[in-house]
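Continuing the series of single-chain predictions for the mutant panel. This is the parent chain; the variants come on the following pages.
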Amino acid sequence: MKRDVVSSKRKTVNTLLLLFLSLAFALLSALKLPLLDARADAYFSDALKGATVAYAATRGVNAVVSVLKESEVEVSPVGVGVNIAVGQILDPIDDMTERASSILVTAIVALGLQKIAFEIGGMAALQVIALLLLSMIPLVWLPTRGGAGWVSLVLRASAFLLLLRLLLPLSALVSDGLHSHLFQPRIDTARESLSVVSSRYETLNAFEKEEEQGLFSSLVGKAGRQVEETREAFGHVADNVEQIVGSLLELATLYVALFVIQILVIPLLFIWLGYALVRYPDWRHFGAPHNPPGDAG
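Parent structure:
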């Protein structure tokens, strides 16, 4: 009888503890971790901004190549053979910009999804913990053999979610460190190289947007300037084909590596670490009656 009373008191204490913890986690779910969450948010914002700028530079190169292809007659009025040479020069760049653009779009979408998952996961993890702790109250009052296994499972799941809430910002900080010191300098170099080409699109496109002045001399002058700018742009592209293709390839390679390391490897590594940390403790004693040594009952 005395043992039943002790067991009942223990279960009552555990029930009150679970109620308190559940309420605490529900209230804490709306709060952000000091420093960690702010740094993680800044990393995602900067990474998305950098990827968007790189995509804009890549599309700018593609736009310049498209304008030059449409202006083949003006660029190379000598004959068909020269027009074919123009296409042979521009086609590799055109093809590479399309591939790099697709990779950059994938990286932008992946970073955006990771940012959303981080923001939602931080709040949802603690709310789920609160619900799991509430669900444990009936289990505490079940007989030891019937409830101990479920109690252990729920506690492991709660511990895993809590660790995940703490580890996700840390994984973002690790990604930020790698991005800042390993990826960003090389991305900036490749992007600046492409910006020299993409900036010419504004000049070439300005001729098409200018209003017609109605004077023959103005039209002739405009056409002459357009031909000259087009030839100059083509000459710059032709002289730097290897550098342009190399920069596009560099961007594509860096963002593939960024995707694999920052979007897949690091988060999965931290998830595995959280799982490993909650795998070994034995939670089955929670809520179970204490059997003193030598008590055969």
